[in-house]
Amino acid sequence: MSTAALNLTVRVHPMVLFQIVDAYERRNADSERVIGTLLGNTTDKGVVEVTNCFCVPHKEHDDQVEAELSYAIDLYELNKKVNPNENIVGWWATGNEVTNHSSVIHEYYARECSNPIHLTVDTSLQNLRMGLKAYVCIQLGVPQGHTGCMFTPINVGVTSYEPETVGLKLCQQTIGVTNPNRPKTVSPMLDLVQIAEASKDLKELLDNILTYVDNVLDGSAQPDNAVGRSLLDLINSVPHMTNDQFTQMFNSNVKDLLMVITLSQLMKTQLHLNEKLTMLNSTN
Predict the structure, then answer these.
(1) Dihedral angle sign, alpha carbons of residues 110, 112, 114, 119
(2) Could you report the per-residue pLDDT of 67-78, keeping only the tens digit for each?
């Protein structure tokens, strides 16, 4: 393995973690851990982005591992038809440590992709948190002698697309719900409510920036060059326009939005009419 593999950074999307936890909850009663395949892409900057995964049924014995590899191949080929840009980047397992059987499983994925990563998710919640670790396997030994491998930790973190962020914020609303009469499910917010929440958060951020600037000006806080450059870039990125120009642009966007809503309602009406006409013709 090249030294470039040690510099890899893994970025895991929330959907992957949800799928791993779901697979762990649905495991067989005699299974201590669950394994599966990681799907995603590796960028030129040494970042492995894990966007999807699936579970691979297996059984672990003291001296061997039995995995349904044909099932894994079939599921990967089916996923390839739906998401052609997702490739095998490694494999995952539940637990907080690397086991003796991990090297055997890693050998299979080393044949499926270059420099596969191994992701462990601590579903047992040791230390009251779900630990997330990533490894690469380094070959050890001397030429024409005994060889082995060692799993070396690499950087790992969680990233998300904008729709995933919206879903996570909704899930966070159920945290701390102890009242049995209060449902633990939430419904997606209306568009106007989301705009109001975003405006509220933006106002709080602007208040924090103004407080920091005032503290720097009166000498109660030390200036930070990096923060100053970021604020300057932020100000320069805001388009300069008059109130009339902003009002005209806003009204134009509102008209476009109303047009899209009207067309979508018309399409729904046509679909309902078509469904009812189809049912009438079938009964006749």
Answers:
(1) negative
(2) 888 899 999 999
What is the model's pLDDT at position 36?
93
Residue 138 backbone phi and psi in degrees, to 5 = -110, 130
Assess contact for 69 and 31: CB atoms under 8 A.
no
Q: What is the mean pLDDT of residues 31-55?
A: 89
Residue 98: helix, strand or coil by DSSP?
coil
Residue 120, exposed/middle/buried by CB under 10 A (0-12, 13-18, 19+)?
buried
Rounded to an integer, the average pLDDT of 115-130 is: 86
Tokens of 279: 């049912």
Classify strands 132-141 and 117-121 as parallel, antiparallel or unpaired: antiparallel
Please state, in angstroms and rounded to a whole number, the distance separating the CA atoms of residues 269 and 25. Answer: 42
Burial class (CB in 10 A: 0-12, 13-18, 19+), 15: middle
Q: Which residues contact 170 (CB under 8 A, 6 or more apart)?
A: 186, 188, 189
For residue 176, name the pLDDT band (cuts at 50, 70, 90).
low
Res. 3: pLDDT tops 60:
no
Q: At CA 130, angle to CA 166 and CA 110, rounded to 5?
A: 95
Helix (H) or strand (E) holding 15: helix 14-25
CB 60 within 8 A of CB 53: no
- Is the distance from CB of 123 to CB of 24 less than 8 angstroms? yes
pLDDT in tens, 192-217: 777 888 889 889 999 999 999 999 88
